[in-house]
């Protein structure tokens, strides 16, 4: 029994070896026949990357660059000796475009040509698929733009306001295709969201967005930015309402200024200042009004002058100060009694002017009706005057004491003769 099994195994091993030898021999015969009887074959090669080389071309002379279209791929069929093309790969081939007809910025359909890297290659290359590729050309330019910051989610707490938001940096240089860069109209940095109502200034990160003149968003994929990180400063101002008051100069002597009737419009304005500035005033004083310029119904437009750091947020730039006509009157007087006070020693001074005519006096109607020349004082005050010998013209002060809110409108002068005293 053992001899039978042993004999069977030997026959089986001999048969297996015979079969393997037969398969190997068949492969050798097939290869020999293929090479001998069918030496030429066709092979399909794909994923050949298309090159767009502008070096030394007229396109480069025009200052154009490839904006879009590089990296596209084509496929071809190769026909040649089996043993020569059997191991060919896409890396062994070069796909190039024809730049004929590219004369200005734009998108072109360019013909593709495929050739072997090896100049001695002996095989045929079919027309590539696809035969053309789309390539976009443009000039590369650089421009610098002002950056505007916005914080749409920022909200100031009651009694506070957001002042002008600033971006750091305030400019950005953008390099890219002329057709894209020239469309940029606004560079806006939008601040990251702020959750709480603000009572103090804060600085947050921001992201840059580009827009054309119609506020359409511009893609930045083809652009190079000099800066991509931006900070947004959100200043917070404290608001307050402040009353206005007016100042006067050349007020007549002993004039009861608190009783003078006039109106200020508006009476108060709203101002704002940074939170680190202390509120150390109760009112805002307007510029001076010369009392001699106040006539019946006079109106004065005065500009505001705010303390350092404050802003006027009321929307009113000019303040109107008005003097009433109702229950007021004016009357002209000729004044003959002209007095000199504070005359310097060492001089004899004589008033040459004998009368100051048509002095306009304004006041309440009932007071003006009973007023006479004797109630009016015309005075030449030489205190601090640069007096020299000779004849000169000097100002005359007009005031009406003890008659309440009565004053003289206008400027008046007199001629004096100054003589130096003999020692």
Please provide a written account of the structure.
The chain has 5 helices and 29 strands. With 423 residues, the chain is mainly β. The radius of gyration is 50 Å and the shape is rod-shaped.
Could you give a quick summary of the protein structure above?
The protein has 423 residues and is mainly beta.
Topology (elements, then pairings):
Elements: H1 2-37, E1 40-51, H2 58-61, E2 64-68, E3 73-81, H3 82-85, E4 93-97, E5 106-116, E6 123-125, E7 132-150, E8 160-162, E9 166-168, E10 171-177, H4 178-181, E11 186-191, E12 202-211, E13 224-225, E14 230-234, E15 236-249, E16 263-265, E17 268-274, E18 284-290, E19 299-303, E20 311-312, E21 318-322, E22 328-335, E23 338-341, E24 347-351, E25 356-364, H5 365-370, E26 377-381, E27 390-399, E28 407-409, E29 412-420
Parallel strand pairs: 1-4, 7-11, 15-18, 23-26
Antiparallel strand pairs: 1-3, 2-7, 3-6, 4-5, 5-7, 7-10, 8-15, 9-14, 10-13, 11-12, 12-14, 15-17, 16-21, 17-20, 19-21, 22-25, 24-29, 25-28, 26-27, 27-29
